[in-house]
Amino acid sequence: MRKWIDLPPLWLALTLLIAWGISRVVPGLGFGGAWAGWAGAALVGAGLLLMGLAAATMMAARTTVIPHRDPSALVTGGVFRLSRNPIYLGDALVLAGFILRWDAVPALVLVPVFVWLIDRRFIRAEEARLRAAFGAEFETWAARTRRWI
Fold first, then answer.
1. N or C: which end of the chain has fewer CB within 10 A?
2. Is the C-alpha dihedral spanning 84, 86, 87, 91 positive or negative?
3. Per residue in 83-142, pLDDT tens?
4. Is residue 27 domain-resident?
């Protein structure tokens, strides 16, 4: 049961909540004005698009998007040609985007913290499962595809 509670969207939601709290405690630093709002919206949109494209590619390959399950296919096409973790990259973009929109510049430190947390809690285990299931095919893909971008 605990594995089902420990899912990346919950960590993203928690980190967003902390960032929002920071924006209320240290409001309106005036970081860049309107451009920051537009840049933030663009990052959120790009992150959501990236997540959607990655999830659709995984569904088309009939493999799971749930981190704790064993994969049934190694997905290397679509956005997975650019990043080994496009969903997590999308999460990080959404987080950064909301931080900019909320004018919560001190909360930007949460982006690398979130990336580190996701790497330790999910990515390492996922890559170990992929390595075990797909061996040399995974190693070839991992050698030519960066983890993030």
1. N
2. positive
3. 999 999 999 999 999 999 998 888 999 999 999 999 999 999 999 999 999 999 999 999
4. no
Extended beta strands in 1-149, E state: none
In a domain, 2, yes or no: no
CA distances from 64 to 57, 92, 126 (A): 11, 21, 11
Tell me which amino acid residue 111 is: V
C-alpha pair distances (Å), 113 with each of 4, 13, 88, 149: 22, 14, 13, 17
Indicate the helix (H) or strand (E) that contains 141: helix 124-144
Q: Is the pTM of this model over 0.85?
A: yes
Instruction: Flag whether 94 is in a domain.
Output: yes
Flag whether 60 is in a domain: yes
Where in the sequence is the domain holding 44, given as residue range(s)? Answer: 35-64+74-149
Provide the pLDDT for residue 37.
87
Domain total in the chain: 1
Place of tokens 């690398």: 112
